[in-house]
Specification:
By secondary structure, the protein is an alpha+beta fold. It is built from 6 helices and 15 strands.
Length: about 260
Amino acid sequence: MPRMLDVSDEVRAEIGDEEADRLLAGETAPGSYDCTSCRTPGDSEQERTSTVLFIGEETAVLAFAHAGCLPSQVVQVTEEQLRGAVRSISGDTTDLEAGQAASEQAVLGVTSGLVLIAGELHPALVVEPTAPIARPGATGGGDDFLPLLVEQGFTPVTELSAVPPVLHGWSVLLALGRLHAVLQPTAGGGQPVAWWQAHQPLQVTEGWRAAAGKHQQVLMFAAPVGSIGRQPREDLLREALDKAAANGRLVAAALPLAGA
């Protein structure tokens, strides 16, 4: 039976016209699947479904997502990330609450957690560098992490009483049930690029994924080095966020899920 599949031009270019046509005809595409983004069931015979191709150095994995969660696209990952993705498909549910990735200026610590705002739980990412971040090209000391983010559209937060505004053009890539990257727009309006990318995709909790699927966005909070710390529990993380906000050391934005 034909499937309600979206196969983008870039995916078709990678897998070839013959394989793309076999997918659309239902010969090789599954009817039911677990969405690679929100991890809830989908049915390509009943609802629009995106084909998402993960490509490593040596291998590739074709996955499926609700069209409302992710567009059909090619995602370049490392071979190690791809192996982790395959493990997650096969049922590896090891939880990782935080991870780090290298940027040009410093290492960014990223922690995931649920934050209660106005009586409702929201999925959140908290970003804190391990060292001061200077403005590109600047000499001498200083920490320009928050001013640089404000220039990108993030909003200073003095208290966590309301959801921050949506920052259009930025997004969070959640695929195969794991957190892959925070994406930012490019100056020329081309494909978004990774502002932060996990060395290994981060497994988030089922509750976090469910909240992300419900809101179709993730709240990102950012603070300078030494403001938050690595908190082992969500209540302690909230206390640290409240303290950073009260001290004028917190910016935030609501980032749509990639493809939302």
